[in-house]
């Protein structure tokens, strides 16, 4: 123990010496008279400010100072050191150039700091926040060729708003402004804040845009501040139109004609093929209801624009309908560029024509994809996909997609006799940009609702065991309330699985396991499914969330009508095949928190339950939950975990990697950090498992019980993420910390971790290679 402490002490001393040397070595590269700028500090001298107000003001002021000093890591400046030690490159390439200008960072010197400019910034910012009598000074502290600038601010008392007046006159625009005053951001007794005043001007502008004032601008509003009308550091605000506001900005405009160019091309316009604006005679032959669709070749049905456009003839202009229309045209998926122009048609009546200039995407596309992959279940393989897309199938912006694919996976070690897997299939989807239903569906969303119809077939061959034919089909709707909320309702979702061939070898194996027999049983699954997704991850907030809830109801009405009850011997069939009856719910909740621009924490919680009843005693294998693998509990190979405390190693023929359950609980946490441009690292921990609803004699310990917490598997690890923009290559190395199928007293594995043991590493260090983040 004494020797270990001695070595540790010498290590700390050596590390401290190295750190000191690196820190000091940067200054030796400075020329005579140069000083390294190490940053600035703002001190606030004011006894009337609260601690929070002082801290907030100090943080904001320091963030506005320029330039920023050289970046540091653990108190050192390694980027500056790389810049200093690298030779000046002769060309803009090579190792020296990369080290000096990519890895390195040019020194920030005291001479680069304009202290008077920063002092003015501090005073101006303080005045903009209501400290009208703010005064600032600065001092420079230098030592050992390093310099820091200390700015001292004496802000005085902060001025508060005593009264807000919205100046009245007889103009139409002023009357509309008066109607907007109840939602004002300017409140009595709030601090004077220039940013709030700017937001108030934009609020008024947005409100007027909703009332037809298309040409209005926030700069047409002026907010006058008068601090002389009241004592005790109070200020009165007067909100009014500027005297030189253009007459056009004060006029309310309405829509005259709505004209659509669905095959717009700038070259055609330059060649004189189309004219903008167009006269009434030229437009008459393109009329459809209240709009004009300029499509001589009839590539698009005019009614799709009647559904997508919110502006109609005679409507008062408003920004909401303007943006909704543009968004809906984009969400049709058939136009590459969407442009909007308003051209005055009647200046006396304040009317303008609105033009929609739409540039179509390639209507048809053919894409061939070749993929190579590996997974944590010791399988490698490749996949070939041929995809054809038609974006205007019936001239109504219907998207038709057809795909043919083939894939194979072969075993690279791991469990014996797992056998190779070959898959081939085809699927087609028709997506119609409206709700096809006997009822009327009105959507005021910026996103076009869609009706989706899908059909698919897959042939699966697990060599030497079995081959399966799987047929799928669905009919349903997808619609968004807004950018955050999405609904996906499949009125009917059908899956039919039929074995084409089952070998004698597999029959012999499955005779020992009812669960394995169910894999090759004929299956008929049909019913509605619904999923709801909420996310605000697209917002620039430090904390965002993602939630997806899914409900799957199979055979419920049919089971009720037929009186099916398999437990009472009343199993019902359709065309000789028993149909599945169950209810399944799954919840996926994720929380993301950004500490800085380069560091974040991502967490996920999954809870799922599938309950068989009526015509089914078990959940179909394809609809059960699985655990383990690159996107789940990464310390366990894919589908090897669970159910419960069952030990999958006891199963013959290597089939332990296909374990499934009716209940799933999983919790993941991952700390992510960016090291350098495309290089990211992560430290993660995963916990979870699956369980069965009912007892299974072939899998003892698989049923969910009050002991479930002791059966939760735990793993942890580190990962590298190579972010190449077009894809993210992920490598995660994980090890199990708690194994649920060990004896209860031995499930935590801390005392058995031995990185020096090659056999331990082989069995317990799991490398996951994947594309994209796990969540």
Automatic annotation (TrEMBL):
Where, by residue number, does the polypeptide cross the bilayer? none
Keywords recorded for this protein, A-Z: Cell outer membrane, Membrane, Signal, Transmembrane
Q: Where found in the cell?
A: Membrane
Q: What is its main location?
A: membrane
Q: Which InterPro entries match?
A: Bac_surfAg_D15, D15-like
Q: What GO cellular component entries does it have? A: outer membrane
The protein's matches in Pfam families, at most eight in alphabetical order, are given as: Omp85
**Domain spans labelled Bacterial surface antigen (D15):** 460-750
| Protein known as | Surface antigen (D15)
